[in-house]
Amino acid sequence: MVDPYSPAPAPRSRASAPLSLSAPARPRRPRCLETGRGVLMAKFVLAGRADCPYYAKAELLADYLQKNLPDFRIHKITQHPHVWEEWLEHLCEKNKWSHTTSPIIWRELLDRGGKGMLLGGYNEFLEHAQLYYSVTSSMTTELMKMIAQENLETHVEKELEGESLKGLLSPLQVWITSASAPACYNLIPILTSGEVFGTQTELSIVLFDSKDAEEKLHILASETHDLVSPFLRSISVCTRVQEAFRQAHVVIVLDDSTDKEVYALEECIRSRVPLCRLYGYLIEKNAHDSVRVIVGGKTFVNLKTVLLMRYAPSIAHNIVAVALGVEGQARAALARKLRTTPASIKDVIIWGNISGNNYVDLRKAKVYRYESAIWGPPYFSRPILSLIFDSEWVNGEFVTTLRKLTATGQQLRGMLTAHSIATTLKYWYHGSPPGEIVSLGVLSEGQFGVPEGIVFSMPVKFENGTWKVLTDLKDVEISEKVMTRMTSDLIQEKLVALGDLINFQPYQSEHQDSVSSDLIQDEEKDVVMSNDVDSSDLIPQTISEKPRSQEPTNDSEGKSVEQQQITLDQL
After folding, report:
1. Could you identify which of 139, 237, 521, 557 might form a hypothetical disulfide with 217, taking C-beta atoms 3.0 to 4.6 angstroms apart as the criterion?
2. Cβ atoms within 10 Å of 314's Cβ, excluding its own
3. Contacts of the segment 115-123: beta carbons below 8 A, 24+ positions apart
4. pLDDT per residue as tens digits for the range 435-456
């Protein structure tokens, strides 16, 4: 119920409205009630429907009296026409009054409190003004209607402003799926530090997972309370599928595991569909209209992202895949080689499949604050490839290291996954550093020659609460051979998952060992590194592909999300 004493907004054009009043040169000052403490000042409360012409007429008369009489005070309340009758009924019931029209006016003694004394409607207020103050109003009907319309417009504007302020005061709803995963344990302290969403934003975090993980989730929630973060409004646990993502502003999708027995890569790919279909349906149904979905993890990141887009089409542009984990690993390897810090290396681009066949592009990479014969101010940088003279290391050890990490998923375990997700969210809400290139998995619309309809990691920048692909970058062309290699697996994964392709056939290059030389330009040392992953590496580390005659492998990883998939089938 609306507060009956909330003040009414001032009309925008009231100062210029012609005042038509019949009054003496100075309104007669009435006798005031005197007590032992002095003079009591009368306050009138004027309430009405925002579009009521008689409220407008009474309001103008009351404004005149308040301006000219030191002991006269007016408090104004307007209500939207849709809620006026309900509000009036509640007010009269509370004060035991009988009144059915707009406006309603009552008097209160400022020093006494308690319920007011009902004066009546417009006619009664006009009679009161004539009798006690010798003032009356002769406002025309046309002017009454004009001011009434202004009142309604001003009232609506104030309601919208109030909703906006309320939104600022309400906590940001953050849902984390598969919350019993190790990455969640590392992610929560970062989210509640104030660095990701800002120090003006409070969070309400919901940990979502299967029923079997409920005890672990409650322990995690209890530890989170112990952080005593000033930015955490609440943290709760949800294991009921029907309640998932209610009013979510942010959904963080972590790696799901399965207890299902998996015999082949194709079965592993198809096993991702039920959960993504469930999440997509629930996000469309329950989440906030402007929800942002961020997919992290170490297995089938691009595939899960494109499936979520398929099953939550209305927010497809707000679903992205995190690529900063791979980028961070590449920057760390380069930093070790150059004996500098990873933070000083910028603009390393990750192309392609985040958890599979991708390319680490060093053609735009720079290093800042590098100790060498050439030194400059903090904004001075040097191209990475001009400082690494060991091309064998670049095309050999560097590529091999990143390949092994992607194959085992070690580059995206707990701490790095959490930091990558948090950094991506921070950029999404506050913008990426000016001029800096960020890698992000987004739905391709044909940029850089990438086939449409697949999620592909490419260079972007974040600004104004959204992301934009950096299609204006120069000298980042990719050869047809390399593009085919990167996109082939992504296209097949999608087709296998949706049942349009039975068997997955990994792309085989004729010269795998020298594939990185496809984009090498000897004079400029422009290189794209191949993070070449064998087809067997696409299966999660705990799920191995075996012939059907062998015993199946059980993927446990300490939690069960398959029960959520079963719940989906039962819905």
Report:
1. 237
2. 10
3. 116/45, 119/44, 121/54, 122/54, 122/55, 122/57, 122/58
4. 999 999 999 999 999 999 999 9
